[in-house]
Amino acid sequence: MRLCTLVAVAAMLSASLVARAESLIGSTVDVRFLYPNASSTYEDFGPQTVTPGLTDDVGGLVDITFGTDTITITNPYPGGFTADRFNGFDIAFLSGFTVDSVSYDPSSSSLFAPGSKLTSTSSTIKLNLANTCDACEGGETITLDVAGPTSVTPEPSTFALLGTALLGVATQFKRRLV
Predict the structure, then answer these.
(1) Which end of the chain is more exposed for a tag (fewer CB within 10 A), N or C?
(2) Does the pTM of the predicted model rise above 0.85?
(3) In terms of Cα–Cα distance, which of 130, 141, 120 is closest to 65?
(4) What does the alpha-carbon distance between residue 115 and residue 130 come to, in Å, rounded to a whole number?
(5) What are the pLDDT digits (tens) for 121-145?
(6) What are the distances in angstroms from CA 37 to CA 31, 66, 84, 88, 159?
(7) CB atoms closer than 10 angstroms to residue 101
(8) Cα distance between residue 84 and residue 4, in whole Å
């Protein structure tokens, strides 16, 4: 009987835990466009708080838009990016978000994404666009799926279930003693 009670308690607790991933919204970022190499800042937007749909226009060359868990780079004009050593973005998360993983979303343009180089650390994402998009006609996008660490957080109902389960276990033990 004790084993059944313990299994029931474990099932109730695991069912009430919710996995939550961090969101880009509310984090503070500094977006820099680097060109012609990774140590030369062509344009720096300065620290900004990410809001849904926050968009930076990089000198009329590209637009970068933030979502809850995506970053979309849009090439609004025909033509590609020069073959310099670095021609792209350095997105630094100054607070509020830790980068766990970054990947290309399948919706990214087949004309734009190939050839780009994506790297990341826990606080930065770099996307080198050098020598990409030569056949682009304008409007092509690269969408990055960005994930933060996932934490398991108990919902308030977890504590109510735990209390009920403990009461049930105590009742079982009391019956056995009587």
Answers:
(1) C
(2) no
(3) 141
(4) 8
(5) 999 999 999 999 888 999 999 999 9
(6) 16, 24, 7, 9, 54
(7) 10
(8) 66
